[in-house]
TrEMBL record:
Pfam families on file: Pribosyltran
Coiled-coil annotated spans: none
Cross-referenced InterPro entries: PRTase-like (IPR029057), PRTase_dom (IPR000836)
Protein name as annotated: Phosphoribosyltransferase domain-containing protein
Domain Phosphoribosyltransferase, first and last residues per copy: 26-173
SUPFAM superfamilies: PRTase-like
Length: 229
């Protein structure tokens, strides 16, 4: 049975979190049942990493990265028509793609660009370290928000293929229709700020928003492990 945990007092409100770190702290309060369990927190780079670090710290769980990435529209890099998983499995939003009027060559070029970025990030962030075993574990997948949801769907598919026991999605904010679709794919979803409407931007949930650079991701990972050790 799927379970949605939200904060109804934040429904359809904007700028409800100071920043990603503050949002992670609030999310962790709704996930305390997983504290000190045989679970793992997986952050989606880049924006999901500072959120995931706070959750992992509060729950005393290991933190790792699940490097998935949306396939960007060539003329609008904020939007995507699919996603690619860490093992290069491609997930496309076929209905949306039909309306973009992109050629097969353009689609393939964007997929190849995405695959190359995942490979580069894997080297940069993971330093060749093998992805941990998640078999029979509770896996909490974290991002800074849900818009189209295809990046998260790709992450969910990857985790399921690696035989996790239970999948929990934790995001500070999300588009209502996406939240309910993602919920249908997992056992539990925590989204504190659910918003409806025609226009949705993840950034609108945060007072302080900036793109997370690669060096910030690396710093968060290093600092997290210093705190744990």
């Amino acid at each position: 049975m799927q379970r949605l945990i939200e904060n109804t007092s934040l429904k359809n409100k904007l700028y409800v979190f100071k920043d990603r770190k503050a949002a992670g702290i609030l999310l962790a309060q709704r996930l305390l049942g997983y504290k000190d369990t045989d679970g793992i927190v997986l952050g989606i780079p880049s924006g999901g990493v500072p959120v995931a670090a706070e959750i992992a710290k509060a729950l005393m769980l290991p933190l790792d990265l699940i490097i998935v990435r949306k396939v960007q529209i060539p003329y609008n890099t904020e939007a995507g028509f699919g996603a690619v998983s860490p093992d290069n499995k491609i997930l496309l939003n076929e209905d949306f793609l039909k309306n973009l009027n992109l050629s097969e060559k353009e689609v393939e070029q964007q997929i190849q660009r995405t695959t190359k970025i995942i490979k580069t990030r894997n080297i940069l962030f993971r330093k060749g370290v093998v992805f941990p075993s998640i078999k029979n574990k509770v896996v909490i997948i974290v991002d800074d928000g849900l818009a189209s949801g295809y990046t998260m769907l790709s992450a969910i598919d990857f985790v399921r293929r690696h035989e996790s026991q239970k999948i929990v999605v934790a995001v500070p904010t999300g588009l209502e229709k996406t939240v309910y679709y993602i919920l249908s794919q997992v056992e539990e979803l925590v989204c504190l700020n659910v918003r409806s409407g025609f226009i949705f931007a993840v950034a609108d949930a945060y007072e302080n928003w900036h793109d997370i650079e690669d060096n910030e991701v690396i710093s968060i990972i290093k600092n997290f492990y210093k705190l744990k050790n």
